[in-house]
Amino acid sequence: MDLPLPPSADIDLARWIRPGDGVLWGQANAEPLTLVSALADQHARLVGCKVFLGIHQSGLLTPEHAGALRFSAYCGSAANRRLADAGVLDPLPAPYSSFPALIRAGVLKVDVLLLQVSPADAQGRHSLGLACEYLASALDVARVVIAEVNDQVPWTEGDTWLDARRIDVAVTASYAPLSTPETRTGPVERAIAAYVAGLVEDGATLQCGLGAVPEAVLAALGQHRRLGVHSGTVGNGVMALMQAGALTNEAKGRDFGVGVTGVLMGSSALHRFAHRNPALALRRTEYTHNPEVLASLSRFTAINSAIEVDLTGQVNAELASGSYVGAVGGAGDFLRGAHRSPGGLPIVALPSTAGGRSRIVARLSGPVSTSRSDAGVFVTEHGVADLRGLTLSARIERMLSIAHPDQRAALEQQAGAPLHGAA
After folding, report:
1. In the chain, what percentage of residues exceed pLDDT 70?
2. pTM value?
3. Residue 341: which of 205, 217, 145, 138 has the closest Cα?
């Protein structure tokens, strides 16, 4: 990315990072750029260091650094794709909800934690700023905590703060945190969003994944009322709904009046909006992805996208044209939660085609990221296919109905003989 990056921190990382150590830091907007810059600059002295990446938005780490550093990640998003395409990224195909347990067990090794935090309050506590999620679990087990204290990081409410006494090394910084680029939506995304908006009830609690389709859906919900949010990520679309009075968090069944998320991914306006805002809280992954919590939410509506789906409801959200670009992520966690929630809706929404090829397929070209047993409602620009409670033959007919019209005959042929009598 072409970014006005701050200088790297004046810190000798080799003093703190031992050979073979696992290192982790905040993803996306929460990336501590001065510390990551220092890691990149000093990588030759950190041979064998194991780096676990979330969404690596800055692109400071490149395939050239892989001679010394070993990269793994839960996703192929942003600059991770370059690492994946170069063959130096080892993906972790695990549900997002499993990360805290993996960290605590040492399977996902976190010896050194790099954090971007706000200045301390009068009690000596730092806010974790733009991400809490699995960083909270890493904070519990890390041998060394190195904190970049940035006076432009918002103070966000939540369930985890960093006591100044827990910091082994503090580095002062002052720069605007990374912003997530806005996604572009066109007529296809808007058509999908209109169908999804017609399914969402007033008073629903929303979870939205990343990408153009979920953002288009949020933009289409401005006339709804008493919406809530409980999501792994929150971006500008949620902020706009809160500012418009459509999303008040008053009917969630818990956390009344408070929107809950693990990470903020949006613009500097979102960062300012979140600063000391009691209506928005950042929580641990153990809470945001907890199945009992999700089941207790009123009309929990999970809205996620996919790379491709097959005719029975299996979802590939990881691999596109042989390149690792997505993740298992939290989609499965949230879809299962929506199944269990009273009045919940598990939605996967996607364009019917990409580059002239159908994204509804007879057989997936990549892994099964979400099983067909967790499938719910699928939406394209051609309509809605509710697969809940349907047999395989009925599912195929429903999915054919929302495929692109030019692709349906070929898909039906690939699925076998024409099916009759489906519900």
Report:
1. 97
2. 0.95
3. 205
